[in-house]
């Protein structure tokens, strides 16, 4: 997956076979299995390409006050992950969701400044601080780091 993810040009089965010391047929079979769970890989006459990034994601349920938003988001991006959204589950209205797309400390700062400067209350005020984040990363190990960071901050309730 890393080879396809980091290469813009098509990667041939023969090249992958040589790189991983297996036959081209083994690569063809493996790619077929991978494509079942990652539809972003397509086969061309020149090789395989990835049409979309193959990110892994996890939903974290957290609870904290408004003063901890910056620390929470920094913990996510410092681990190398992205905070895709924030959502709450309301007893009457159901799921209420907002996109975040926070990729860096700069994005965190801009988001926090926007909340402060516009004088609005965060979505989490509706549920007493309890909310969820969909977090994306390049690997499960990065998501594990996010989980540990949120746990060590004492704000992690669970993982979905």
UniProtKB/TrEMBL annotation:
Q: Which PANTHER family does the UniProt entry name for this protein?
A: TRANSCRIPTION REPRESSOR NIAR-RELATED (PTHR40068)
Q: Name one GO molecular function term.
A: metal ion binding
Q: Where would I find the Helix-turn-helix type domain in this sequence?
A: 3-49
Which stretches make up the 3H domain?
61-156
Where is Ni(2+) bound in this sequence? 64, 72, 131, 133
Annotated keywords: Metal-binding, Nickel
Listed InterPro entries: 3H_dom_sf, 3H_domain, HTH_11, NadR, WH-like_DNA-bd_sf
The protein's name: Transcription repressor NadR
Pfam families documented for this protein: 3H (PF02829), HTH_11 (PF08279)
- SUPFAM superfamilies reported for this sequence: Putative transcriptional regulator TM1602, C-terminal domain (SSF75500)
């Amino acid at each position: 997956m890393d080879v396809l993810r980091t290469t813009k040009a098509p990667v041939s089965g023969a090249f992958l076979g040589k790189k991983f010391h297996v036959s081209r047929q083994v690569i063809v079979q493996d790619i077929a299995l991978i494509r079942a769970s990652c539809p972003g890989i397509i086969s061309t006459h020149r090789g395989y390409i990835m049409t979309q990034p193959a990110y892994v994601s996890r939903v974290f349920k957290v609870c904290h006050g408004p003063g901890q938003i910056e620390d929470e988001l920094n913990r996510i991006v410092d681990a190398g992950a992205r905070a895709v959204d924030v959502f709450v589950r309301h007893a009457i209205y159901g799921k209420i969701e907002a996109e975040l797309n926070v990729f860096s400390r700069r994005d965190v700062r801009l988001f926090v400044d926007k909340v402060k400067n516009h004088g609005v209350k965060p979505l989490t005020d509706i549920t007493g601080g309890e909310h969820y984040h969909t977090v994306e990363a390049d690997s499960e190990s990065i998501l594990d780091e996010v989980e540990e960071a949120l746990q060590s901050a004492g704000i992690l309730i669970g993982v979905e």
